[in-house]
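Suppose a classmate hands you a notebook page containing two proteins, each written out with its sequence and a corresponding row of structure tokens. How would you begin to make sense of it? This section walks through that situation. The first entry is reproduced here exactly as it would appear on such a page.
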Amino acid sequence: RDHFLAALRILKYLNTVKDRRLTFRGGRARAAAPDELVIYSDSDWAMGSTDRKSYSGNVLYLNGDLVAWFTHKQPVVAVSSTEAEYIAISDACKDGLGLYHFLSEFVQVVLPIQIHVDNQGAMFMANNLVTNKRSKHIDLRYHMIRDYNNKGIIILKYISTEHNIADIMTKAMDKVKHRYFTGLLLQDEKLSNGDE
């Protein structure tokens, strides 16, 4: 019965948004430079109802236009929100590099890839080669962020949670916040300003 009610709720929502469209504006919608890949990364923490695994969410823009979005269940249980965000940055880095290599076949994409993150602890871990007792257990595969950051392939930028578009990929939110982020994703100023 719960699944049936959830399905009805989804259908009701889809019916209310059937006239909304993804808009491409040729790079003029945001302040991104031409051929610039910008990623917004976020995670929840331990929200898996049975296994307590976190989810990573990434939103990727090229020239200010939304070109890809991903939500991944993280393969390990993160013991802190910083670790969950660090893993999400790793996912964003992998998604961004994959998209960069694909797009490079067609257009010239400028490096570094900007990754916007709302967790300063995860940014600190990525920017510093410091390992302490709280981060020593993190799998080596996630530390590739440090290597790409040091080589100038990616650059991490802080963004407040209130403006992190990837938040919509990982969390349930109230109607006002959902409408705001949907407006940003669809590049609909009317929606992102709360009008409608």
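The notebook's second entry, a different protein, reads as follows.
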Amino acid sequence: DLWLSDHPYNTRSILQLADCDQFPGRIRGFTPMEANPVIKFPCGIGVAAHHGHGGLSAILPLGPPRLLPRCRERADTGQLVPVPGPVELGAEYFERPNMRLGDGLQAKYSRGGDLQWLSRRRDGQLDGLCLRFEPEGFLRYSECGVYSRGKLVEKWQTSLLPDGFLALALSEFVLPVKRALSLGLSTCEARLCREEQVDLGGIRPM
């Protein structure tokens, strides 16, 4: 087995693993209007954990951190009104940095740790391939497609998947993060790595 890990893929300790001294320069915060906490690493990639659960929610590119004001001035009346935030977080949402989703690939996971989505985003919107996976690693064709500026422009056909796309996405985006955190592979990821002949022994941590 070329993929040795200290933690199972469905661990509920993502924040403890990512928010530690092993990763100097990391930033803990949130993304806009989301309760899931995120850790951004100096390379610009981050991980999100399911709120109230702790399992891996996403691997995603994150923009610059900024603190949000708790109030804003209405342009029409000049009145100060509260800035909305996730109700379940309360004041914590404003006490930690907020980071917008960056451009590029994003991997999303179920609460059970299974890879569910692999998509490309631009300016916060789906833009390019959007792949939906079953826990066993098969594509759920009815939910896959090609998007442009958030709109579906082409329903799924196998010919839409470029040769080597999955191998590249796994080996250069998903797996280096999992290697750094010493996380195991889900059934879906392990199957895709076998089918795409990904060199697991050559994966370096991010």
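A careful reader of the second entry would note: The helical segments are 14-18, 92-95, 165-181, 187-195.
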